[in-house]
Backbone:
């Protein structure tokens, strides 16, 4: 039987009860979030892009599909985080492949002025009690690598994603995290990191996660 590369030996729960993994499309957020949730024996929170009925239309017609796709994600993520707040207090760890604050980032990239104004009014009324992560992991990679990864995973509706859109999104992420100080932040260069096949990369990252308790830090794998 072939061993699942995402399954690794469980380790004690993290000293950070809530970890959020972030970064642009194709950077590896979900892969890392799954590994961390397995390692820390925690609950996995995924943004569920495949459940958004407006996403394919957005990729085909970004201007026409931007507002409904953003509002769906906003309602979806808000509901999920509300359930987290109300759920079992004995769950020691949670790992999410999104940061609630990121929702506004996508809105600013994709919505026109009037749509953004409406979106921000809705956002302010929905996200007041969103939990604050104990650590945010921001994965970075050059746009050409992101595009190759997106093409390689072969999701039909993603083939219409353009390099221009990824450039705008990556720049928006860079600007957002340049000023981000709500939680401890670990910025990870994922372009040379192989979380599936290189266990040393992952173990090095785990060590940095456990030691990052405040401020802004950077990680590049050394082997």
Residues:
């Amino acid at each position: 039987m072939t061993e699942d590369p995402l399954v690794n030996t469980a380790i004690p729960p993290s000293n950070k009860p809530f970890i959020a993994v972030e970064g642009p499309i194709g950077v590896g957020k979900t892969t890392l979030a799954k590994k961390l949730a397995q390692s820390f024996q925690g609950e996995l929170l995924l943004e569920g892009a495949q459940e958004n009925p407006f996403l394919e239309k957005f990729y085909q017609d970004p201007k026409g599909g931007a507002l409904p796709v953003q509002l769906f994600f906003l309602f979806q993520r808000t509901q999920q985080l509300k359930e987290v707040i109300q759920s079992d207090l004995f769950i020691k760890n949670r790992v999410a492949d999104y940061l609630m604050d990121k929702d506004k980032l996508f809105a600013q990239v994709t919505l026109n002025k009037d749509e953004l104004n409406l979106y921000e009014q809705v956002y302010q009324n929905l996200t007041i009690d969103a939990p604050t992560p104990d650590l945010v992991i921001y994965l970075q990679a050059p746009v050409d690598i992101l595009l190759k990864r997106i093409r390689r995973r072969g999701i039909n509706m993603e083939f219409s994603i353009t390099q221009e859109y990824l450039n705008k999104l990556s720049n928006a992420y860079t600007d957002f995290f340049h000023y981000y100080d709500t939680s401890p932040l670990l910025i990870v260069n994922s372009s040379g990191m192989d979380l599936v096949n290189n266990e040393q990369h992952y173990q090095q990252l785990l060590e940095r996660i456990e030691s990052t308790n405040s401020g802004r830090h950077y990680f590049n794998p050394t082997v």
